[in-house]
Amino acid sequence: MSLNIPHRDKANGTSGATKAVILVGGESRGTRFRPLSLDLPKPLFDVAGHPILWHCLKAIEKVPSIHEVYLIGYYDESIFFQFLQEASKEFPHLSIKYLREYQALGTAGGLYHFRDNILNGRPERLFVLNSDVCCSFPLNEMLQLAREKDAEAVILGTRVSDDAASNFGCIVSDSHTRRVLHYVEKPESHISNLINCGVYLFSTDTIFPSIRTAIKRRADRSARLLSFRSSDNLESSFMINDDDDAQNGVIRLEQDILGDMADSKQFFVYETKDFWRQIKTAGSAIPANALYLQKAWQNGSKELAEPNLVVKGEKTDNTRPGIHPPVFIHPEAIVHDEAELGPNVSIGPGAKIGPGARISNSIVLAKAEIKPSAHVLHSIIGWGGKVGAWARVEGSPTPVTSHTTSIIKNGVKVQAITILGKECVVGDEVLVKNCVCLPFKELKRVSLSILCTRHTEPC
């Protein structure tokens, strides 16, 4: 597609002005990201050397018509304070603000609650991004499609296997016009392998009236159900419980808005051929890390470590090829020149990697230590964690096309990626495989395919 994107518009309500919202959720969500989310909210977790939110902002910055970005969620404001300060310096052309919901309002309810903030300055269009999405974010391409089609809404879609499609919102579209004909969230039977990527572009004249209509429709339905006595309609007494979300003001784009929009002739899908992945579970951070690193390597990012070069260490010999790209090493990390890293590895600030250590397809978080000759494969080492000399912390590789990080082992479904929470310690010469370990554990003997939950006893 040939892009014809104008220079960055002035933030004064001029024609073509666009705003962006990133939905970050709150503390009662993200439980599948534990144990990592016990110490840090998922949107701030580092993937490929940067918080998940940073990747969203990096993409938004490339859209010239966007000047204002809102993070909407129900975390305490203090959680994002430092991130917002740093982001404001790194993205000086963007005004980035956090809007806190008084309770969980849903992906559409939060938008509607803060509609006055969003509509201030009369923006023409609104991007809405789920923060737990890993992709190349083709926002300019979506904007171009919206202009070409005079679209009321554009959804980002991608193709997955037929078996995986029912786990996502499924889109039926016209292959020629790209108009969305039908949308169903997590259908019970196969509809399409074109799925919702969780990135949207809405006309502001369309999205807020659509949400208002959905709120009224669900409120009317709840009122009708409540008018029946349970003795008159036993089934409705159970349906009332299912509609608690409506009574609590929870309105969701996926379940309550997009299906109705498919009835409009101005709802279109932009199908990306590039990578896409959800970051739902803690283990899914590993494939997301790999995808972002590979994209950065393809784009010639200067942040990545150069292969065949010493990064930092006691020796000065730079002839040993210790880096297998792509690899991200934070400037404050200490990596011995006899360590071997990559591919798809991120090393956090203050981390120490000893001589002979081998790390592949893994994330080593801030201040963690990997001692001499230890191996870390398909794993996440938590903040301040320690892996002893000659120890082996290992997960199982999952196919690139897979959208799950679970595997079947000895007839039991287990986590493919090994995850050690904050300040976990693995003893010397200990094997840890396919484990999820809560913070502050000390692993003194072989641990295979288990969930370590005790804090005081060895696993």
Overall geometric form: globular
Main sheet? 7 strands, mixed
Classify the beta-strand content into a percent band: 25-35%
- Low-pLDDT runs: 1-15, 234-247, 314-320, 453-459
Function: Involved in cell wall synthesis where it is required for glycosylation. Involved in cell cycle progression through cell-size checkpoint.
InterPro entries: GMPPB_C, Mannose-1P_guanyltransferase, NTP_transferase_dom, Nucleotide-diphossugar_trans, Trimer_LpxA-like_sf
Pathway: Nucleotide-sugar biosynthesis; GDP-alpha-D-mannose biosynthesis; GDP-alpha-D-mannose from alpha-D-mannose 1-phosphate (GTP route): step 1/1
Keywords: Transferase
Highlighted features:
11 helices, alpha/beta, single chain, 34 strands, disordered C terminus, seven-stranded mixed sheet, globular, seven-stranded parallel sheet, 459 residues
What does this structure look like?
- InterPro entries: GMPPB_C, Mannose-1P_guanyltransferase, NTP_transferase_dom, Nucleotide-diphossugar_trans, Trimer_LpxA-like_sf.
- The strands form eight sheets. The chain has a seven-stranded mixed beta sheet, with helices on both faces.
- It is of the alpha/beta class and 459 residues long.
